Amino acid sequence: MSYIQSLHTSTDELVERYDTVRARTERLAEPLSAEDQTVQTMADVSPTKWHRAHTTWFFETFVLDAFIDDYEPFHPQFNYLFNSYYEAMGERHPRPNRGLVTRPGVAEIESYRRVVDERIHDVLSSHPTDDNSDLRGLMVLGTHHEEQHQELMLMDIKHVLWSNPADPAFLSPQHDGENQNGSRETSRPLEFSDVRGGVVPIGRLDSAGFCFDNEGPVHEALLQNYRLANRLITVGEWLEFMDDGGYERPELWLSDGWHHRLSEDWSAPLYWRADHGDRWLVHTLRGTRPPNPHEPVCHVSFYEADAFATWAGKRLPTEFEWEHGVDGTPITGNLLADDPLVGPLHPVVDQSIDVVAQAYGDCWEWTASPYRPYPGYRPTTGAIGEYNGKFMINTMVLRGGCALTPPGHVRNTYRNFFHPHTRWHLCGVRLADDN
Known about the structure:
Number of helices: 9
Radius of gyration: 22 Å
Helix content: 25-40%
Number of strands: 12
């Protein structure tokens, strides 16, 4: 397999990790009704019910079917309904129509998850993972895959609830002083640190444990000296951009970005709406409220981020500058809590003293790099090879994780990717400059 496996993982550790990850998915679904879990508001958004079923289909298809002789699927239609994009696994239900699948319902999906969990436990108890690297590798990959979908579940349900004219919230607001509004906190001045360039290593080492295949192979990149901002761009700074006509000045925008700005009528970040006069409100997973000027701005497209950087006389960092610039920064920050229903679920005010703050958590950070394979990259054979490689075109790389990313899921080599016009994922801006 072309992805790097988690080394020296015992069967007990695999079982514990599997159970922890699967329980987190169910915990995230607890606040949602069956109706909430069925709705799809656009092609990029999948119903919560679909996420719960698809992550289960992954384990059923790639583990149970491979390690149980004459395996009988839970349901003969589930491969068609819950396959995402694996062409090698056969035809599948069109992605934009996932919200039309009212049956199976939530109760049957719960049964599906329970039965597959039981059978996974049986496989792990009967196949020593120390002697079977394929099983160990598939289990580790499957749990990281489900963590990706946990983040997507939250991003997607945010769009679903925002689209409801009744303006429901996923969870109730937090108490004052817990960084939900950050009313008593202010961000540090925006400053830039010098970063020495040169020939630098990029990518994940084989000895470092699990990573996705798109994080390697390790290779060298030549970087000029550059400067990297100490924190993310804030709501207040974005309001200055807006007040200066940032959304009305085509000279700030890439041509395709200006086309999207006009055709989609962008005048503010996604989830913002004007209330009275100049007052803005922002929809969050914990309800609708005024945006705090000191918290990071989020839900802006690559095109908006690039226009802001041009307006500020700066630029976005490349993914290699980002990776090199945050190297050595502790992987801590405003990520999803161990209990995923606790915490802000939204970017918070920077209170760090780190030279490069908010590197992990808060917002996925747009980079100036297109998503392309590293030198020497080769996808693995078979359906698993479709996991990342075939998407390496027409998208841009983001780094760092966000407030919805599960703990332990990010690292400085992690490469996320989205189309440059998309905004529903939790994405923000860090600036760079030439030295």
